[in-house]
Design goal:
The protein is an all-alpha fold. The chain has one domain (about 1-235). It has 13 helices and 2 strands. It has helices at about 1-20, 30-55, 60-80, 85-115, 120-140, 160-180, 180-190, 195-200, 205-230, 240-250, 255-275, 290, 295-310, and strands at about 150, 230. α2 (about 30-55) runs antiparallel to α9 (about 205-230), α2 (about 30-55) runs antiparallel to α11 (about 255-275) and α11 runs antiparallel to α13 (about 295-310). The longest helix is centred in the N-terminal third of the chain and has 30 residues, at about 85-115. The model is unreliable at about 315-324 (pLDDT under 50).
C-alpha cells in the first residue's frame, strides 16, 4: 500500500507540474474553479482523518483554515522580500509562509484538542464550533490582521502546481498514516472508544494527533487560498464554511478517501454548474426562477443524494476497516 501511494504521489506531482505549464491558456473562470477544487480536496481529506477515520465530529475546520490563511498572509506581507525578488527567493518565502500557516493551525488544533477531545459526539461538535467562532472573533479584532476590514496585498503565488501537488501530498500522508500502526489506533477509537480504552489505548492521544495533523493541512489550504485570492476576510471562514467541508466528508463517505475527493470535486463544481444553468437559452421560463435560486436547488440536490445514498458515495454498511 505504501509503495503504491508513493508512486501515485510522484505521478500526481509530475502531472501537476506538466499541466501547470499550460495554465495560462485556461479560462480564468475555470482556473479559479480548478484551484478551489484542489483546496477543497485538502480540506475534506484532512477533516476525513478526524471525522471519518477517528470517528470524531468537528465543526471547526474553517477556524484552522483561517489560522493558516492569516498566519501565512501576515508572514508574506511582513517578510515577503527578505530573500529577494527572484523566483527562487519568492518561492522559498511562499513555502515558508505555507509551512508557518500550517504550524500555526496545528498549534490551534493542539490548543482545542487537549481540553476538548475528552468529550464525545455532539458535545465535541459544539466545542469545535465555539472554537471556530473564537478564532473568527480574534481576527475581527486584530488590527495587524486587518480586523473587520480584511487583509489583502499578498502576492498571487498559488498556482495549479502548488495546489494539486499539496493536495496529493495530503492524500499521501493521510492514507499512509491510516495504514500505519497509528492508523490502527485511529480506527480502534472510531470503532469503539470504550473498548479501545479498556485495551489500554490512549484514546485522547490519538484524537489529539488526528486533530493536529488535520488542522495542519487545513492551515496549508488556508495559505493557498490567501495567496490565490490575495484578499481574505473573517466572514470567509465562518460556520457555513465549516459545514461545507463536513458535507463533503459525509457525502463522500466517512472514512473513504476516494469518496471524499470525489465529493470535494462534485460540490465545488455543482454550484457553478447551477449558476450556468440559469442562463441557458433552452431552459423553459417556468423553470428559470428555480435555477436562479441555485443555492436552494443545490440544497435540494444534497438532500436527495443523502436520502438515496445516506452512507455516502463510497461508504456503506460493509465499509472496510482500512478504507482507501
Amino acid at each position: 500500500m505504501i509503495e503504491r501511494t508513493k508512486i501515485l504521489l510522484l505521478v500526481a506531482v509530475l502531472a501537476s507540474a506538466a499541466i501547470s505549464l499550460f495554465a495560462g491558456q485556461i479560462n480564468p473562470y475555470y482556473y479559479d474553479i480548478l484551484i478551489s477544487i484542489g483546496i477543497n480536496i485538502i480540506l475534506a481529506t484532512s477533516l476525513n482523518l478526524v471525522n471519518g477515520y477517528t470517528g470524531q465530529f468537528s465543526l471547526g475546520h474553517a477556524g484552522f483554515m483561517a489560522a493558516g490563511a492569516y498566519g501565512s498572509a501576515w508572514l508574506s506581507l511582513a517578510f515577503g522580500y527578505v530573500l529577494g525578488t527572484s523566483a527562487a527567493g519568492t518561492t522559498t518565502m511562499f513555502v515558508l509562509a505555507l509551512t508557518t500557516g500550517g504550524l500555526i493551525a496545528a498549534l490551534a488544533g493542539l490548543a482545542v484538542g487537549i481540553p476538548s477531545l475528552r468529550l464525545r459526539g455532539d458535545y465535541l461538535a459544539i466545542v469545535t464550533l465555539g472554537f471556530n467562532e473564537i478564532i473568527k472573533g480574534v481576527i475581527q479584532n486584530a488590527e495587524p490582521l486587518g480586523a473587520q476590514r480584511g487583509l489583502g496585498g499578498m502576492g498571487q503565488h498559488t498556482n495549479f502546481f502548488w495546489t494539486f501537488a499539496l493536495a496529493a501530498l495530503t492524500v499521501y500522508v493521510v492514507l499512509n498514516l491510516v495504514h500505519s500502526t497509528y492508523g490502527s489506533g485511529f480506527l480502534a477509537v472510531r470503532d469503539d472508544e470504550i473498548a479501545a480504552e479498556a485495551m489500554g489505548i490512549n484514546t485522547t492521544k490519538y484524537k489529539v494527533l488526528a486533530f493536529v495533523i488535520g488542522a495542519f493541512f487545513a492551515g496549508v489550504a488556508g495559505g493557498l487560498y490567501a495567496h490565490f485570492k490575495q484578499f481574505i476576510h473573517p466572514e470567509g471562514f465562518n460556520f457555513l464554511r465549516s459545514v461545507d467541508i463536513v458535507v463533503m466528508v459525509i457525502l463522500g463517505g466517512m472514512g473513504s478517501t476516494a469518496g471524499v475527493i470525489l465529493a470535494a470535486i462534485l460540490l465545488t463544481i455543482l454550484p457553478e454548474g447551477l449558476r450556468a444553468l440559469a442562463h441557458q437559452p433552452w431552459l423553459p421560463d417556468s423553470l428559470r426562477p428555480i435555477a436562479e435560486n441555485r443555492m436552494i436547488l443545490y440544497s435540494l440536490l444534497l438532500i436527495i443524494l443523502m436520502i438515496t445514498r445516506p452512507q455516502g458515495l463510497f461508504g456503506g454498511p460493509g465499509l472496510k476497516r482500512r478504507k482507501a
